[in-house]
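Researcher: Here's a chain I'd like modeled. Treat it as a single chain, no partners, no ligands.
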Amino acid sequence: MNEQTFHGVFPYLVSPIKDDGTIDSAVLSRLCTDLIDKGVHGLTPLGSTGEFAYLNRKQRRDVVETVIDAAAGRVPVVAGVASTTTGDAVSQARSYEQMGCSGILAILEAYFPVSDESIFSYFKAIADSVSVPVVLYTNPSFQRSDLSLNLIERLSRIDNIGYIKDASHNTGRLLSIMNLVEGRMQVFAASAHIPVCVMLIGGVGWMAGPACLIPEQSVRLYELAGRGQWREAMDLQRRLWALNQAFAKYNLAACIKGGLELQGYEVGSPLPPQSPLSDQGIAEVRNALNSVGAL
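Model: Modeled as a single isolated chain. Structure tokens:
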């Protein structure tokens, strides 16, 4: 297994798409460079914020290639792999490792119901196909087939499945996961959780779209938690939470892209049939960014 460990702030990157359907590599590269300069600990293309479900194979590959080139080895790149078929997911994972990714974020898409044993086999096949660390991603709000605690415990015994990002809104579930896996798997917070609370109970960082908009504040939050300065961390967390509340009301990719547009990144709108951020949404995101000094 690759011995690299992941921790800290990993922004879920957007996927800027030009009118002709190609990836706007210049904008994405600039965003990656700026995020690294502001102290993030890694980059995650093709997460939920990256609209992985709306991109074709070439677009996904071009996004990953752009991020790897922009990172230039300065921070790990953990690329999202998602499919309705095991064979396609394995093919993606192998390809991204060969391109130079430091890890794989494994996501299961499903149309028909999938049994627990089939879910286990899907994630095991991805892990067996690569040598880099694998991060499990579970989001019951969007995924037809979720990972049960029993499945997570079983998967934690596979050598290179070392992390999970659980977006269940249930912090108690995260503590249950930590107790079950007994250190074999580390937990990242999602934007659905209060990151400082997740780090208090033993989480190792935050993988989420909002970190694209507030990288310096997110890194500061992580550092305060790492030093055990919980009072200061919670003071900062309270100020940042208004941004999460705005995201909860609207399409996540639309919110992050809308916020980045306000910050001067021409990332465009989400791919149809998703809708761009409404005027009211833009106003709310602007106010939230202003309140934390991110505009």
